[in-house]
Amino acid sequence: MLRFTKQLAALVGAGALGILAATAFHGAATAQRADEPAPRAREVPPSREVAQYSFSPIVRRAAPAVVNVYVQRRVQTFSSPFANDPFFRQFFGDAFGQPSERIQSSLGSGVIVSPDGIVVTNTHVIRGRGETEIRIALADKREFDAKVLTQDDKTDIAILKIESNEQRFPILELEDSDTLEVGDMVLAIGNPFGVGQTVTSGIVSALARSEVGNSDSQVFIQTDAAINPGNSGGALVDMSGKLVGINTMIFSQSGGSQGIGFAIPSNLVRLYVAGAAEGRKVERPWLGARLETVTRELAEGLGLDRVAGAAVARVSDSGPAAKAGLLAGDVIVHIDGFEVGDARAVQYRLTTRGIGSTVKIGVIRKGQPQTVELTLVAAPTPGRDDVRNLAGQHPLDGARVSNIVPGVADELGLDEAEGVVVLSVRRQSTAARYGFLPGDIIVQVGQAPVSTVTELEELLTKRQRVWLVAVRRGDKVFNLQVPG
After folding, report:
1. Residue 97 within any structural domain of the chain
2. How many CB atoms within 10 Å of residue 143?
3. Residue 31 phi/psi, 5° resolution?
4. Of 112, 196, 297, 417, which sees the most CB atoms within 10 A?
5. Which CATH number does the domain housing residue 239 bear?
6. Is residue 75 part of a domain?
7. Sign of the C-alpha dihedral, residues 416, 320, 308, 408?
8. Alpha-helical runs (H) found in 31-156
């Protein structure tokens, strides 16, 4: 016990000496030396406003232009007084009963970008079967009907017009999304869960995210600002109060925000707003080449030092890429000075530059950097004989098909070859019921190969006891058998 006390006393004494030494050192350190600058003067803030940091000035400017988008759809269902009777359900199934109509409702967000009431939202917010009614609710509680000007499934952008008898509305100005940098602060404004307008803050987590979408046209801004169901179509705003993106989706395992949200860049939104205002469809530039994202194996085979870029797999003889001097085996790494990480990023950069522009494409060719200039043009329009709307007593009733001409091949990412591709399928048609999808290639009907739409149409006029249709989807061929 005595030994422990002596040790404790020694430690206390050492601590006291340490405190005295530290105090002396601090006093010496706080004394200004001749070779040091004068310490920065500290002053009391002149006002409470100066001392209080807040996003409220930005929100006051931006929030009035962010709206709620209410969508109601009339859909046909079946009902019956025997619907819950196990006996009838056993024999007639769930569809037994009389047709009736019910209303489906959904809720999203939107952003007013023009004083005359042009609203940007997501296609998935307004898309659905049946007759659709769209209602716009402003932050000041006014409500208006709206109509769809244009919508694009590939980019998930929809443009609406408020029907308002020429009233003027608050707007959000579009910012150049290329000025964003990772780490910039942003605000997400929308109507999550239908609880009313909500603002969340965060930073830009990443740029040019392309591996999360379903289309080769989709490139996203990633943010950790909370985005939840109902935020779709809402605004991603920078610190100047301008629109840098349209919130579109989240990465989540629970359905709620987990700090990984994605927004469509404003530079792409701008194209669709301009197209809707001018009454024209946005056209993607025709490259005339097939691109593949550089993988680790491909990078090793080409001798690249980075797994990034888009490799040119094929070049059409008469396309813009051939005229610009692109060659199979080139790896595109820059467009107008912006790095491109994959094939989707290339398509995004070309699309945002717009038809008629000339871009500088940086490529790696046989290990050496080179630059080529590409003039952006629209894909050639398929001729009247290239496209058919199919109708009749056959499995492809309701499908719109086309010969695989260069423009169609480039749009759908197909090899240019003889064949017939499905462009679209009318909802609730026979072709839709049998599962045909845009991009499917009709290879064969019965025992006859299909090379052109003329051949296909002729084969479909011959009634069959059993229809046999071979379809190539991606790298697989499916054989469909349907009673005639």
Report:
1. yes
2. 13
3. -75, 125
4. 112
5. 2.40.10.10
6. yes
7. negative
8. 48-51, 56-62, 86-92, 123-126
Using the 8-state DSSP alphabet, how is residue 63 labeled?
G
Active site residue 124: yes
Same domain membership, residue 146 and residue 111: yes
396 and 367 in a common domain: no
pLDDT in tens, 428-471: 899 998 999 988 999 999 889 998 999 999 999 888 888 999 99
- Give the pLDDT confidence of 148-205 residue by residue, as tens digits: 999 888 889 999 999 988 889 999 999 999 999 999 999 999 887 667 788 999 999 9
CB 132 within 8 A of CB 145: no
DSSP characters for 341-356? -SHHHHHHHHHHH-TT
How far is 5 from 26, CA to CA, in rounded Å? 31
Gyration radius from the chain CA atoms: 31
Amino acid, res. 151: Q
Q: Which domain holds residue 243?
A: 177-278
b/e sequence 179-190, b meaning 16+ C-beta within 10 Å: ebeeebebbbbb
Q: What long-range pairs does 289-297 form, CB within 8 A, spacing at least 24?
A: 289/313, 289/314, 289/315, 289/316, 289/319, 289/321, 289/322, 289/326, 289/410, 290/314, 290/413, 290/415, 291/332, 291/343, 291/346, 291/347, 292/343, 293/342, 293/343, 293/344, 294/331, 294/342
Catalytic residue from among 177, 205, 210, 232: 232
Q: Which of 132, 163, 194 is the last residue of a domain?
A: 163
Place of tokens 């290990």: 367
Per-residue b or e along 39-70, where b marks 16 or more CB atoms closer than 10 Å to that residue's CB:
eeeeeeeeeeeeeeeeeeebbebbbbbbbbbb
The reply to whether 247 falls in a domain is yes
Claim: this prediction has a pTM higher than 0.85: no
Mean pLDDT of the chain: 80
Q: Are residues 417 and 362 in the same domain?
A: no
Q: Which of 106, 109, 156, 330 is catalytic?
A: 156
Residue 156 known to be catalytic: yes
Torsional class of 93: left (φ above 0), alpha (ψ -120 to 50), beta (otherwise) = left
Q: Which of 80, 114, 116, 124 is catalytic?
A: 124
Does residue 185 sit within a domain? yes
Q: Are 331 and 407 in a shared domain?
A: no
Q: How far apart are CA 109 and CA 102, in angstroms?
A: 23
Domain end call among 328, 354, 375 = 375
pLDDT digits (tens, 9 = 90+) for 351-409: 999 899 999 999 999 889 999 999 999 888 777 788 999 999 999 999 999 988 877 87
What gap in Å lies between CA 370 and CA 87, rounded to an integer? 75
Q: What are the structure tokens assigned to 185, written together?
A: 């602060």
Q: Which residue in 105, 59, 72 sits closest to 197, CA to CA?
A: 59
